[in-house]
Amino acid sequence: MIETLFSNLAIFVLSLLVGFEVISKIPSTLHTPMMSGANAIHGVVIAGAIVTASLANSPAGYILTFIAAALAAANVFGGYVVTDRMLRMFTKPTPARTLTKEDAS
Amino acid sequence: MTGTAFIVGSAYLLAAVLFVVGLHQMRAPSTARRGNLVSATGMAIAIVATVVFALIDSGGQLVAWVALVLGLAVGGAFGVIRARTVKMTDIPQLVSLFNAVGGGAAAAVALADFVLHITGGTLPLTASIPIALDVLIGSVTFSGSLIAAGKLQGVISGKPITFPGSRILNIAVVVIALASAVLFVFNTHSLVLVLVILAASLIFGVLMVLPIGGADAPVIVSLLNALTGLAVAMAGFAIDNQAMIIAGALVGAAGTILTLQMAKAMNRSVMSIVLGGFGTADSSAGGGPVDADLTNIRQVTADDVAIQLAYAQHVMIVPGYGLAAAQAQHEAADLAKLLTDHGIDVKYAIHPVAGRMPGHMNVLLAEANVPYTQMLQLDEANAAFDTCDIALVIGANDVCNPDARKPGNPVSGMPILDVDHAKSVVVLKRSMSPGYAGIGNPLFSDPKTGMYFADAKKGLADVILAVKEYVSA
User: What's the distance, CA A83 to chain centroid?
Assistant: First the structure.
């Protein structure tokens, strides 16, 4: 038990440090999509909903499984889709107009 | 270690690597979309691995699996439909809503784990402490994010809401939530204590966000986002799931950094925003409009603006909250395109906090097909204002208030766009009402500034019509 706790704690603390390090400087251009993208990642709670389903053995457990699954699914699927919608607009190729202009000159 | 555990462990490790790489790639516009897809791939791997492990390891009841599938279908459909149909101007409240459900899901997982053990032996501290923390944090972010979404949506007043005794009530609710959490840790069979933690935390989430002004709401949403990450990590501790611990901690840390950077860009401290919610807010934030002094300003019409634009060489568009609120990003882009086609150089000067939350304006303009090479960030824009013939300010106020360079006022020290360095300025605004800071803006009474009073969408449409007269002639 205590070994599990400490290996989990080590993972937790190291992940926190990685999180601080990997993000450090974000251009303000991307603050909104970044927030939305990070939001989608905590949708990993869906794994918790799955584990809950595999263990549930009472009506209360079934209801909580349903609630956890519905909320987590909205978080994870909605989160990734909306982030992708935003970022797709950022990476759109520049309009052909600029190209034709250069070609003409 | 069994074979399944080995495979699941490896899958979780791979998912964790993909989350980190994805987050890292999201720091630059060119790789950001790929980063999000990398992170989504990690999520898919984590989900499949969990399903396989759950089926092999414990099997479970058919009813529970049906409940899971039903829940996933309902929630997934809701999330995807909202995500695909939301207007880009409404992004902030949708992010807040998705954050709320994440917190709610984390709390539900902990509650389910509690229910599972309620008839069994006493839970060890390694399970009871995370369960208590998860229910506490998850519930606070659930109700708090819902209120923040309501404020951003306009369903709940964006003004700080306070009432007599709210501060004492706040403290009382926090004490009750914490005290019952501590009691629960040593008394893991008590349903009453769990329900008290749940109720008190939900109430605290509401009370914490209600007094926060609408303009500060994005910072709170970001902070709650970080907290949801921690709640998910706690849920991971409770059910011993490493994917949840890793991803939760990543989001907790990344969200914290993002919150600090957002607050800095808005010239606010996170402490003052949160504590502002506890009844110490400065009254100016929610103050009424200052009486408009129209004597010193020069009013212009759509036609005047059109002449200036049609005969300029370098035009700088400065979009602000008013443009986002009026959803006039397409009109702004149309005007810019009209001018560019006529050989005029048009750029956008984008303040870090223009729009409804940091970075939101870039999303809105990208939606209107503005290439991001035309969007200048603060420093680039300020270098370009000196050679700019006309700066067209659309619904922006505080972000171009020259008083920020002077000490002793609410915007002092805030990084601003040097709009007053342009050769001439046109401010398109509905009225003289002050911005969030609640102070007047000397830019508006500058002799080289023309004030064009109109709704951003309607006003720009009129300017486009007028410009067409000049450029086609």
Answer: 9
**Phi, psi angle pair for B64, to nearest 5°:** -65, -40
Residue type at position B144: G
pTM of the predicted protein model? 0.83
User: Does residue B198 sit at the A interface (CB-CB below 8 Å)?
Assistant: no
The torsion angles phi and psi of B316, rounded to 5 degrees, stand at -120, 120
Q: How many residues does chain A have?
A: 105
pLDDT, tens digit (0-9, with 9 covering 90-100), for B168-198:
898 999 999 999 999 999 888 889 999 999 9
| Structure tokens that stand for B430 in this block | 């509905």
B72-103 confidence digits (pLDDT tens)? 999 999 999 999 999 888 898 999 999 999 99
Which candidate, A12, A59, A44, places its Cα nearest to that of B126? A12
Complex confidence, ipTM = 0.87
Nearest Cα residue to B32 out of B44, B42, B20, B22: B22
- Distance, in Å, from the CA atom of B375 to the CA atom of B361, rounded to the nearest integer, reads 10
Compute CA distances B147 → B144, B202, B217, whole Å: 5, 11, 10
Q: Checking phi first, is residue B314 left (phi over 0); if not, alpha (psi -120 to 50) or beta? A: beta
Contact A39 B358 (CB under 8 A): no
Tokens encoding B371: 């290439």
Q: Do A8 and B242 touch (CB under 8 A)?
A: yes
Domains and CATH numbers, chain B: 88-284 (no CATH), 298-472 (3.40.50.1220)
What is the rounded CA–CA span in Å between residue B164 and residue B94? 31
Is the CB of residue B130 less than 8 Å away from at least one CB of chain A?
no
